[in-house]
Amino acid sequence: MKSYWIRPESGKTVLELRDAPAPEPGPGQLLVRMRAAGLNRGELIVGHSVKAGGAAKAAGGEGAGEIAKLGEGVTGFKAGERVMGRCSGAFAEYALMDAREAMAIPKRLSWEEAASVPLVFCVVHDMLVAQGKLRAGEWLLVAGISSGVGVAALQTGKALGAKVIGTSGSQEKLDKLKILGLDLGIRTRGGDFAEGVMKATGGKGVNLVVNNVGGSVFAETIRALAYEGRHATVGYVDGVLKSEIDLEALHTKRLTLFGVSNRLRTAEQRAVTVRGFAADILPFVADGRIKPLVDRVYSFAELPAAKDYMESNAHLGKIAVTLPA
Prior knowledge:
Layout: E1 2-9, E2 12-19, E3 29-38, E4 57-58, E5 62-70, E6 82-86, E7 94-98, E8 103-104, H1 111-115, H2 118-131, E9 139-143, H3 148-159, E10 163-168, H4 171-177, E11 184-187, H5 194-200, E12 206-211, H6 218-223, E13 225-233, H7 247-252, E14 256-259, H8 267-280, H9 282-286, E15 294-299, H10 303-311, E16 318-322
Parallel strand pairs: 9-10, 9-12, 10-11, 12-13, 13-14, 15-16
Antiparallel strand pairs: 1-2, 1-4, 3-5, 3-7, 3-16, 5-6, 6-8
Helix pairs in contact: 2-3, 2-8
């Protein structure tokens, strides 16, 4: 089968198309004939999941396709069923998926839309519901709202009844997100938005922050939080991994700070998040209240071009690649 691999080279990442044998599903696994896969920035940046000087690894972290074969002990699925989920090596004709992370695809979703759901929306469930405890009527601030995770956070926040503020360096992107319910867009690439947030919230601040950007805006997101506010750190596309923290604000405002990552989680811990997403958020996707935003679709052969487009920061939402039937 055809399969893309990714390796670090001179501070960047390079994709290689290889011929590899189709994998065999082990106990608890599904072999999936991939029909589409989603791109994720974190996978393609050296220093995140790809380590400088490390060996090449199978590329792709989420996708959608048809079940080709069931591993031992798998129940609740059948061959030919449409499924989506997080999986290693998704940029390939066949990939293995842990049955605990596989989800039946809602009928209204295309392959490309389904492939754009599993990773970002499970992460968003972790941030907004499981840890963030976002409630209807509360304020949510998303720093770097035009990313895949950012748009999914906006859509999920609105579905939960929250009011959403987002930051982006592009006014055009902010304008487009108003259609999805963005209450306030603040055009900025730096840490200069707390004043605007405070004005919009009547001086109280936001109840939950999603920080996609990193250390360069961390101090400002702390300033933007309300009493008993919660702060989720999910990315650092700015490459800034350290920041000072206002201990007085942390102390007096009784803030909660938490990180969101799957890197050190067990398979069962990841599966718990999938089940939570399936119960709390997937119904919004199934009935159309949430429609995954796919900016652009590339063919499988065009994956390197899709990666270049993602790195240009021109996209809004997700980028997907399709595989031939």
